[in-house]
Amino acid sequence: MIEVLERERTFHLSTEHTSMILHVMESGHVVSLYWGGKVYGKEFSYIVDELKKASYLAWTDGNRNFRLEQYPVLYPVFGNPDLRSPALHLRYEDGSRITNLRYSSYRVLSGKQKIPGLPTVMDRSEDGKESDEATLELVFADRSRGIRLKLLFSVFGKHDAITQSAVLINDSKGSVWVEKVMSACFSFLADEFDCITLTGAWAREFRRTRQSLRQGKFLVDSRRGASGHGQNPFLALTDPGCTEDTGNVYGMNLVYSGSFEASVEVDMQHNTRMMMGIQSFDFSWELHSGEEFYTPEAVLVHSDRGLNGMSQIFHRLYRERLMPPNWAERPRPIAVNNWEATYFDFDRKKLLDLADEAAGIGAELFVLDDGWFGHRNSDGSSLGDWKVNEEKLGGSLKNLGQEMKERGLGFGIWMEPEMVSPDSDLFRAHPDWIIAAPLEEPQVARNQYVLDLSRKCVREFVIEAVAEILEGGVIDYVKWDMNRNITDAFSGELFPGNQKELMHRYMLGLYGILEELTERFPEILFEGCAGGGGRYDPGMLYYMPQIWVSDDTDAIERLRIQDGASLIYPSVSMSCHVSAVPNHQIGRITPLKTRGIVAMQGVLGYEQDLTKCTEEGKKELAEQIGYYKTVRHIMQEGTFYRLRAGENDYAWMHISRDGSEILAGYVQVMAKPNTVPERLQLKGLEEKAWYALEGTDIVRTGSQWIHCGLELDQSMEDYHAVQWGLRRVEMP
Ligand code: DGJ
Prior knowledge:
Elements: E1 2-5, E2 10-14, E3 18-24, E4 30-37, H1 46-49, E5 88-92, E6 102-110, E7 133-142, E8 147-156, E9 161-170, E10 176-188, E11 194-201, E12 204-212, E13 216-221, E14 234-238, E15 249-254, E16 260-266, E17 272-278, E18 285-287, E19 292-294, E20 298-303, H2 306-321, H3 325-328, E21 335-337, H4 339-342, H5 348-361, E22 365-368, H6 390-393, H7 397-406, E23 410-415, E24 419-420, H8 425-429, E25 449-450, H9 456-470, E26 477-480, H10 502-520, E27 525-528, H11 538-543, E28 546-548, H12 555-565, E29 574-579, H13 592-599, E30 603-607, H14 615-637, E31 639-645, E32 649-655, E33 661-668, E34 679-680, E35 690-693, E36 699-701, H15 702-708, E37 710-711, E38 720-729
Parallel strand pairs: 21-22, 21-30, 22-23, 23-26, 26-27, 27-28, 28-29, 29-30
Antiparallel strand pairs: 1-2, 2-3, 3-4, 5-10, 6-7, 7-8, 8-9, 9-19, 9-20, 10-17, 10-18, 11-12, 11-14, 13-16, 14-15, 15-20, 16-17, 24-25, 31-32, 32-33, 33-38, 34-37, 35-36, 35-38
């Protein structure tokens, strides 16, 4: 797992299929020699020894033959003669920004350690299974400045992933200001890469964006106080010809939900450096004497099996090592949510009528969305006043929950605890609890302010207000929403010189709240939401095992959104609902069957007014739900493959954990005239095993389904969808 080659001054981190090789040079700089498919051997330093000396780069340590800038420096620090983008930028009391960190020692620790205050991929060895996780700690020191840096690499052997994070320690007598500190950085002695990111906006999250790299710097980031709809904290470099199933991919994903940055730089010497961490713009952290600063961690995944290979590694790691263990494996309830059915306009009767219908079609959970508290009948008031509006509900929340239980349904509620409405008792009592700049009228967005979670008293309020609602055992699920980003970044509690700490302190505050609430209420299923996928990241998945992928519930829009999200996030983390037609976001009319098949790619739910459905419609819904109950384990725990992701057609499949059951889905967006017969090739089946196509008497070998494919029904309808189930059988 972690081999230390003392004589070669080399560390070999290996997972089942990959290697990462780090080397300490004579100068005490550490370089990354290799990351990719598994290699064997002891001596790798020739990779840098063979570098031809470039001109016009600064000498290092007075040596004209040693120019650090052309080396694949593992964790570049501002001030060294490496003038490319640094991973670390410090400022000292005397005004200097020059840091000279050199390697000092290492330790190999068994398992994976939790980062204080931050969500992390975890060592689950205590769950009884044998742990193959280990951590390499590399320590660097700048003795004249009294600064130490620890880089932590945790290797997840069976999961084929490595996590990286950094710890800064101030051993000096004064303060040091951290202007930039990345979680992970990797440099390649090559520049022939494509770069894939996930971009978008509200209601169109997770667009795959691919471009070939050129000399210069490419950045994706968020300054919003949330990972954001615009860019996911993810970046992958690939071979230029990399496909879904072939080629090398190097993916990085940050376990963090706040402002971040991820960059790739191709330098003058045709080398490429990728890095990721907390947003450095408007960030500055005062590290007092004796203090430590922990970065969030980044997950590094290499696959030589193309994008599907990378996705499968992320999916398995997140299911088995990141998401709350008691929820990751549990069948996720099929929800009926009242949002698009009623918006704010509901009363007890409407809710119970909806619940009757929900129970009638076989749903398992009723979710009461926004509008049940304070006097909130629009988005104009009451956030922060988490007192049940008993008049509107015709009784207590507990009583309503009991009604749901009597109908055989779990009961869930919506909350947005990070916010406060100007029109609320909370704001009237504590106007100073919001994030707002002095001398400025604070900006509202969706009629609300953001609570300053960097403040202890605010955090305590949030925890107690939420806990009071959740206590009593009637709530099974919480949709934790966040409907605006942070502007006016200023905290009344921080000193003027420390204001740039706010965005990160907010995240630490939020994580502290979630840590406490999820520990206090382990049986409650938390679903993350931020106006859809505005904060869909591994940091949130650590607390909330499912996330509302997008406010766009149109099946055709969802194809693209879910396809992008599937690059990193497992299907079981994607909350996907069937909604009414014409669709509320885009006005499109799609068949119910298509909406069902698209939503069954993830955790199925419904958000339409079931009381308006025809008997025939309800029958179809009940059939959808009945079928999903028989296959949800395939989606939840299985291996996912993207089969097609074109402009006009999308196809995907899941193979159950034991390999015996397969569920595949296909959607053709627009009908095409004069088509030629087409076949859909499946993936990942055992070549020689036999698989029966459900509903038919066709039995073929895995190799036949893979190479010869399934016949696609060439429908003349737009938005046409098909779903197939296959089952492994004995040779006929
Ligand atoms: C935004 C969410 O994404 C919606 O699903 C809904 O919960 C609203 N907020 C409620 O205000």
